[in-house]
Amino acid sequence: MSIYLQYSYKQYLISIGVMQLFVIFSTYFPEYFFYFFITYTILMTVVLVIYVGRRAKPLIKDLETVMQGRAIYKVKREELQEIMLKDPEYLEVMRKKLKVGVIQWVFFMISLAIFLTPYLREGLRYGITTMLLHSLKGKQIPYILGGVEKLSLLVSYELLYMSFMLIALMMSRIAKILMRDRVGVIIPNTYTLTDRGIVIDNRIPLKFPIEIINYRIKRRKYLEIELKEQIGREFMQPTRRIRFYSKSPGKLWTLIRDLCNVSSSE
């Protein structure tokens, strides 16, 4: 947990630092803002490609290893969909995901409106300029800040970019609250069990041996397992819980249990 929090704080600090660069270029160097934005986009793309590439190499290797094993149990998408659509728990999960998607879309449209509507930006700037002129009347503004005009522009851009950051944080927080209970689980649309592991949706490998700390069987519906280690970080779905829908979840558990380390059960 402490490592995760430390990582989150680093993310926040980097985001705030980048935001200040956007504010400075927007205020004092608007003629170079386009070049700064293009440079920033290219650098972020390169960093993302390098990061994904490094994380993908061991993933691809594990995927090949598992797929080369002897197939023991395989379920097609059509069969799983038939079972899922009859399960009230699955439908509730889908409703929560839809709700999260709608809320995120609304916040995104608000951000877009603020960014693209000049009246909002100019109104914000005018209000800040008026307030600063009144409060700083007769006071000397440091030359480096560019006077009241530039200072008001600096504060307005600060508030503008800060609002984008706060909206993004709110979206993330709301998603975590709504997805806290049952949505934080991977539900495969297809999966294959081999003697070397499990392949989820033809892209996420679970290479044996894996350590299962909890499991739950719902008769004629699904087997849900909880792993000791998180999976799915590469696909922005970090979780320890996986729900395998099956017409014979007891049989599936028997096959998996003999190949895993099991600590306890629910």
The biggest sheet, with number of strands, parallel, antiparallel or mixed sense and barrel status, is:
4 strands, antiparallel
- State the shape: elongated
Termini separation comes to: 24 Å
CA-atom Rg in angstroms: 25 Å
The SSE order reads HHEHHHHEEEEEEHE
Low-confidence residue ranges? 1-7
How many beta strands in the DSSP annotation?
Answer: 8
Structure annotation, total helices: 7
Mean pLDDT: 79
Q: Which strand order does the major sheet show?
A: 1-2-3-4
Question: Helicity range of the residues?
Answer: 55-70%
Structural class: alpha+beta
How much of the sequence lies in strands comes to 15-25%
Walk me through what this model shows.
The chain has 266 residues and is an alpha+beta fold. It has 7 helices and 8 strands; from the N terminus they run ααβααααββββββαβ. The strands form 2 sheets. A 4-stranded antiparallel β-sheet has the order 1-2-3-4, with helices on both faces. Strands 7-6-5-8 form a 4-stranded mixed β-sheet. It is elongated. Mean pLDDT is 79; it is low at 1-7.
List the helices and strands and how they pair.
Elements: H1 2-28, H2 33-67, E1 71-75, H3 77-84, H4 88-116, H5 118-135, H6 147-178, E2 191-194, E3 197-200, E4 204-207, E5 211-218, E6 222-231, E7 239-245, H7 249-257, E8 261-262
Parallel strand pairs: 5-8
Antiparallel strand pairs: 1-2, 2-3, 3-4, 5-6, 6-7
Summarize the structure.
The chain is of the alpha+beta class and 266 residues long. It has helices at 2-28, 33-67, 77-84, 88-116, 118-135, 147-178, 249-257, and strands at residues 71-75, 191-194, 197-200, 204-207, 211-218, 222-231, 239-245, 261-262.
